[in-house]
Structure formats: structure tokens, C-alpha cells
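# nightly structure sweep
# worker-07 picked up a monomer target from the shared queue
# config: single-sequence mode, recycle default, output format = C-alpha cells
# input follows
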Amino acid sequence: MFRLVLVNLGFIASLAIPIFLPGLISIPVFPYLVSAAGILWCFMYLAATALSVKSISDYGNFGFSDFLANLKAGWKTGIALGITGFLLFIIAWNAIPFYLQLKSLFGLFLAAVIFWTMATAVCSLQFFLAIRARLDTKLVKVFKKSFLIFFDNPGFSIYSLLHTIVPLILLAVLVIRFPELVGLLIFLVVLLPGPAGVLLFLDEALRLRLLKYDWLEANPDETGSKKRRKIPWDEILIDEREKTGTRSFRNFIFPWKD
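# output follows
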């Protein structure tokens, strides 16, 4: 948990580059370049974070030197995800209002198609960094596997996305309800779980989901469409449950009392 907090503090510092630094530059065009570079740096930082938290999912840990090595290994992944996210945002921001302004059934249809395409992309690409950390280093294959994971596990993917979005919605509600605490609320949420906690959740979720494919590979006779829906998770997760054990809420807060 302490390492996650440190990583999140680094991310907060990284956010200062695209948010505050451009306002200090008066040279034309330069503020936009600094903002774009800062955003790409944040995605590179997230890529390094995803590679680092993988070790926690694997019952290990990571240090400062590991994070620097992961930053060197994952910067291309971060840039690819940042550019993809920017393109998706531009398409959604411009195309959907344009087609809605047509005020026709055809325009509504096209706007709906773009909206659901964007939603599918978001549900799929949430695992992009975790897949890069855990499955493949080639970016084309990472994109492909991101969408394969979604289409083969739509309910799992939607739940994972909601797990990330719902706390942000609750934060927005609290900020509106208690505006005097806006700084404290945002700082606490960004600090813990923050992006490192979210990426750890996504990596762990993907790791456990991949156990399904190990089971299907070991049981080729169980790959029929009906049988695939009956994955024996109780059997698959026996080893994982033995490793983690059971912990009460009291044990989580006061582990030294047991």
C-alpha cells in the first residue's frame, strides 16, 4: 500500500505538467506542445505503473529501480495508448454532436453507432496496459488481445469498468454536496487507490480471468459453447484462495492483533 501511495504521488506531480506548466509559458504554440508532452508523459508513467504493480499481483513487490526499468520498457506502450485515447476523444467529441445536429433518423443511427463503438473501445482498452504487462510486448497484438478479452468476457469487462467509474461518480456527488472539501476529497481518491490501485485491480482481474484459458487449454473436451459458460471457478481458484486465505475487516484494519 505504501508503494502504491508513492506511485500515486508521482502521478499527481506528473499531472502538474499538462495542467499548470502551460499557463506559465507565453510563447505562442508552446503551451499546447507542453500540454501534449505532459499528457503523453502521464500515459508513459501509467504504463510503467502497470508493469510495476504486476509484481504485486504475482505476490511480489517492486522498488524504485524496478519502476525506472519499467518506465524504460513501457514508454512506447504509454504513448500508443495516449494517442489512441486522444483520437477516440476527438472522434466522439466532434462526430456524435455533428450527427445529432442532422435531426434525422439516419443521423441518430450514426451517432448511436459511434457511441457504442467508443464504449466498446473503452471497455476493451481498459486492459491495454495490463495485457502489455502480462501477455505480449507487441503493440498490435496488445490491441488485438484487448478486444478479444472484451468480446469473450463482456460481463467481466463491463463490471471492471464500472468498478473504476462508480467511485469517480461518487466523488463527483460528494464534491457537489460538500464543495468546501473538494481539495481533500480529490487528493484522497487520487492518493489511494488512485491510478496505481486501479491498475493493480485491472491486472489482478486479468490474471485471474486468464486462469480460465489455462483450464480450457488443459481440458480441450470442455470447449463447447455451452460448457464454456460453466467454468468451474471454485476448482480453478483453489490454489489462489489457499495463498491469500481469508481475512476479516477487523484483521484488515488491525493485522497485528492476530
